[in-house]
Amino acid sequence: MLDFFAIFSKGGIVLWCFQGAGVTEPFAGPVNALIRSVILQERSGSNSFTHNALSLKYKLDNEFELVFVVGFQRILTLTYVDKFIDDVQLHFRDRYKNELEQKGAMKFLLNDFEFEDDFKSLLRDAEESGRVRNPVAMRNFTESQKSQKTVKSMIESKGESKNKAQGGKKNKNAKKDGEWSWKPALRDIFYSQNILPCLLHLYSKSPKPQKPKTKEMRVWDMGGTKTKELDYSDDKVNGSYDAAGTDTEQAEAKKGAFGGMFSMLKGLVGSKSLTRDDMESVLDKMRDHLIAKNVAADIASQLCESIAKKLEGKVMGTFTTVASTVKQALQDSLVQILQPKRRVDILRDVLEARAQRKPFIITFCGVNGVGKSTNLAKISFWLIENGYTVLIAACDTFRAGAVEQLRTHQRRLNSLHPPEQNGGRPMVQLFEKGYGKDAAGIAMEAIAYARNQGFDVVLVDTAGRMQDNAPLMTALAKLIAVNTPDLVLFVGEALVGNEAVDQLVKFNQALADHSMSDKPRLIDGIVLTKFDTIDDKVGAAISMTYITGQPIVFVGTGQTYNDLRSLNARAVVNALMKA
Ligand SMILES: Nc1nc2c(ncn2[C@@H]2O[C@H](COP(=O)(O)OP(=O)(O)OP(=O)(O)O)[C@@H](O)[C@H]2O)c(=O)[nH]1
Ligand SMILES: [Mg+2]
């Protein structure tokens, strides 16, 4: 039933693998997709991933730097997989403990991991337990107890109903006394899923066993040393997380002579493996810190969850603290998220399109007032500076003044690069059909016009629309589906917080819903505007790239034509990590 099972090191060496009978498809493709889109992208909060027709589940072993991945057909509901993957992990670790404890990557290359027999026996057990858990087939009516009753027995008389009520009460009491009358199959499911202990625990009268309280740590003062401006030159991260770490140790040290001293040393020479409890309080603070920096709350939680999964079980290096380990992991992950996964080189792409005698088409979309038209004008300026001719398609036929706004930009841009200096040809032209017309139709005409007139680039301005406005979202999706632009840029304000998630999810959803092809055309890149207004609250950059997986192509840093930048991932991460 399983398509494959692979055990590989985080460095990419496959230690052992299993391929299901009759499965011919190599599993490298789906596993690579998992690594690229989930593990490297800090999306390991949930442990499943789908790739084409396959469902993949995985588990990270951070102590030995291993990844366990199982793949099976998506249509199958294999209830045993989660437990199975845990079992395989534990068994593999136990069996090869000595080999895995050797230092360096050579341990993976030099050792033979003959795991076939153990794996098969574990798989047999798991499949067996899965069968036990299969739902019991429903009885038909003739088999049911109801069919045995006569109509008379079903009519209640007054006296009987009272008795019944009492009986009911009795039953309730009986339940309180702990007389459970579950169907055995159901009970088995609960037992096998470890649910029963929790349920019994809920119903028991004894006080809940308290989770050992983590030590109180200093509450970070985020506002204390806030810098006024984003510091792009400083590569050093301010030590707020380190400070928290030191404070943790100080708090622990205060607790008492022996325990304090011991835990302080343990914190300094941390050679134990990290547990979730160790990280809990640091992660909580990190989540709050990210949210304070304007990362959407959902994304902050997912990121912290992913970091926890990545670090759980990892043996900390000597002289490292939990806080600094978690901080370093978060910092690396943030840089990773912001690094472009895909090359977006507009100048090169325009050149390629020019060689094919067609214009390069970019569509701008986003909610109202985020800076679509202004940044479109800035991008026009940048393209003109690079020697390309631009046709602006005025497809915001809705907002009063939208066309005039673009006309003003066109005039100003042409006055900065007069036609006389460019062989008498205006570098930028406006294609407009006034208001109230169908935007998709105007874009189509503009593209045809650009092709005929030999323009290098068409920039399509669209009306701002709220992500919940279904008719307007459908119209945008139609414009994109019909005109198939080379680049769909989502313009979003850096000021946005939790809204970022909703906006991007719904824009992408609308594009997918109205796409005419199997591979829907979604947002290809992001223009992050008003970056000059946010001080160091740069979290929107993380939220937006995390949701779309697409790069931030431009950053708008002001209201003049020169205020356009590309994103410096490290600088943004530094700003994010600053206290
Ligand atoms: N500070 C700052 N302001 C910006 C930036 N980009 C745009 N703006 C301002 O944001 C306001 C709205 O800009 P527009 O370009 O009209 O926004 P829009 O998205 O086209 O608006 P609609 O077409 O109405 O949806 C204007 O006042 C711009 O000057 C930026 O990077 N920084
Ligand atoms: Mg506009």
UniProtKB/TrEMBL annotation:
Pfam families named among the record's database cross-references: SRP-alpha_N, SRP54, SRP54_N
Compartment annotation: Endoplasmic reticulum membrane
Ranges of biased composition (kind: Polar residues): 141-151
Cited InterPro entries: AAA+_ATPase, Longin-like_dom_sf, P-loop_NTPase, Sig_recog_particle_rcpt_asu_N, Signal_recog_particl_SRP54_hlx, SRP/SRP_N, SRP54_GTPase_dom, SRP54_N_sf
Bilayer disposition of the protein: Peripheral membrane protein
Keyword Transmembrane: no
Molecular function in Gene Ontology: GTP binding; GTPase activity; signal recognition particle binding
Record key words, sorted: Endoplasmic reticulum, GTP-binding, Membrane, Nucleotide-binding, Receptor
Region (Disordered): 139-177
Example of a GO biological process term: SRP-dependent cotranslational protein targeting to membrane
Domain SRP54-type proteins GTP-binding: 551-564
Any one of the GO CC terms: signal recognition particle receptor complex
Family from the record: Belongs to the GTP-binding SRP family.
PANTHER family, sorted: SIGNAL RECOGNITION PARTICLE RECEPTOR SUBUNIT ALPHA
Name of this protein: SRP54-type proteins GTP-binding domain-containing protein
Species: Denticeps clupeoides (denticle herring)
